[in-house]
Amino acid sequence: MKLSEHSFFARDLTADIPVAVKGEGVWIWDDKGKKYLDGCSGANVSGIGHGVAEIGEVMAEQTKKIAYVPPQHFLNQPTLDLCNKILEHAPDVYTRVMLCSTGSEAIENAMKIARQYHVHNGNPSKYRMISRWQGFHGNTIAADSVSGTKKRRSISSPMLMDCTHICASHCYHCKYRLKYPGCDMMCARELDSAIINDGPENVSAFICETVVGAASCGVNPPQEYFPMIREICDKHDVLWIADEIMAGAGRTGTFLAVEQWNVFPDLVVMAKGLSCGYAPVSAILISDKVFKVFEKNNKAYVGGHTYNAHPITASVGIKVTDYMFEHGIIDHVSEKGAYLKGLLLDLASKHPIIGEVRGRGLFLGVEFVANREKHEPFPLEDAVAKRIVNLAMQKGLIVYPSQGGCADGELGDAIQITPPLIISKEEMDYIYNVLDDVIGQIEKEMGVAE
Ligand SMILES: Cc1ncc(COP(=O)(O)O)c(C=O)c1O
Q1: How many whole angstroms from 306 Cα to the centroid of ligand 1?
Q2: Are the CB atoms for 220 and 190 separated by under 8 Å?
Q3: What distance in angstroms lies between residue 313's CA and the mean position of ligand 1's atoms?
Q4: Looking at domain 3-52+331-445, which CATH architecture does it have?
Q5: 239 in helix, strand or coil?
Q6: Going by CA atoms, what residue is nearest to atom 13 of ligand 1?
Q7: What pLDDT, in 10s, does the model give residues 100-158?
Q8: Where do the domains of the chain lie?
Q9: What pTM did the predictor assign?
Q10: Nearest protein Cα to ligand 1, atom 2
């Protein structure tokens, strides 16, 4: 049945997608009994895998105690415990946490916290946001405004906030046509000029994904990049907000992905892996530097939502995080990621349409190109990523397509391979076998010789 025939207001009216009825580990079953390997954890969500019954038990227990209390009238223990738990696993620079429900909601609040920080710090002219092209921060209007995906933004463009975008740090498609390490990190230096052009007195914050998700599937910068971003932000009193909605909660092998660059943003936004899809939970980690300005000036944060401190969703966040650490799940991410990356590199050696395999830990991506030497993307009408995703699904593997434009804003086909962190070696081999078959078939259809 086409989605247009359901009462559900679907994103793609022409699609005909199955109804999922069961999940267990890395597997999802549809209502016809067909089994799929969830090779992208939904959208980097289901880190601990599907069907972990004890998470449901915690939800039921909390529901029996109390399901909801208004955050302006009461504190609740699960909220306090989840904030403590997040801080226990995060670097020491973060001393406060704001809980929200979705990623976009947390991004909006991070931008507001940054703005209010500057106002209370005696710099009321600072409000502007700088972000990057080929990045994604959500679908609400402000999140859309800082996102850098041209196709997605275009329909909302008259409604968007005026923001500045700098280039992505994407060595495979370097905007400056330079080669790392002889590039003088021009992509990071661009932030300095963007702040100067906007006027440092106007710029509030720079926001970027630590590892880029749906916009370009696994792109992440060289080691020098984030230390330079930190320095540039500090020089101009601009806050740095890291969007780790996809990359956080162990996906790359450390609790926060940015720990791997050994430098810390002022605000970090986490979401998906915090509750692994068992309930909507997102969080803003607030550095002591930012919190102290609110505290010193005795200023309350102006903002908030009905579900900012929801006992049930917080209890899920606690249980999921405990489950991850008690089972040592994050400890195995680097090793599993290296194995899966090895398999994808092997696919690249067999399939000429694979241009690049990239990513960290179990946050991996594969980009497809028409010409490997020139890193030249396929024309839009070939819809290579979409075809690969659709065929893989037919063959029992779910992978996530890029939003398009990862090469130059317009063109570029990539898929994200980000399975549940509990995936086994045999299940990774299954991903390899299905992708080998699927990519081979697409190459045949396109007349590309293996
Ligand atoms: C990096 C990133 N930021 C923000 C968002 C928005 O999160 P949500 O869909 O929960 O609003 C997403 C969602 O995929 C994301 O991947």
Answers
A1: 20
A2: no
A3: 18
A4: Alpha-Beta Complex (3.90)
A5: strand
A6: 138
A7: 999 999 999 999 999 999 999 999 999 999 999 999 999 999 999 999 998 888 899 99
A8: 3-52+331-445, 55-326
A9: 0.97
A10: 137
